[in-house]
Amino acid sequence: KDRVTWTMDGLDGRFVRRWTNIGRELVTSLGSKYGDRVEVAIKNDTREGYRNIMVYAKSFADVHVGETLVYVNSLDNLAVAINQGSFSKAYNIQTGTNWIISIRKAPRVVYE
């Protein structure tokens, strides 16, 4: 298994972080650990609304202000956020069963 796909479950607080119901163990099953980079893709039905490489961080202190991250929330599920920003507003990402998030280990890029 190289990818985890689930729905965007909810949001949290004034910074409007996007929560999923993807448990920490599913990301671990991809071989990802804290500090690794993961590719996050978010779709609304068939329209891709977001795709980027993020750090799988232990805390917001692991990334710079304004940087995106994937972290484990207080429910032991994954969430995506912008450090001291609103992920939801920045990328117009909502919640519900038609919003699907996929996470996989970021592909390794080799520059020659």
What does this structure look like?
The structure is a single chain. The model is unreliable at 11-16 (pLDDT under 50). The radius of gyration is 13 Å and the shape is globular. The chain has two helices and seven strands; from the N terminus they run E-E-H-E-E-E-E-H-E. It has 112 residues and is mainly beta. The chain has a seven-stranded mixed β-barrel with strand order 1-2-6-5-4-3-7. The protein starts with a strand and ends in a 7-residue tail after the last strand.
Task: Report the β-strand fraction as a percent range.
Answer: over 45%
Overall 3D shape: globular
- What is the mean pLDDT? 81
Element pattern in H and E: EEHEEEEHE
For the largest beta sheet, what order do the strands appear in spatially?
1-2-6-5-4-3-7
The stretches of 5 or more residues where confidence is low (pLDDT under 50) are 11-16
How far do the termini sit from each other?
Answer: 29 Å
Helix content: under 10%
Number of helices: 2
Query: What structural class do you assign from the helix and strand content?
Result: mainly beta
Q: Gyration radius, to the nearest Å?
A: 13 Å
Taking the sheet with the most strands, its summary is: 7 strands, mixed, barrel
Number of separate strands: 7
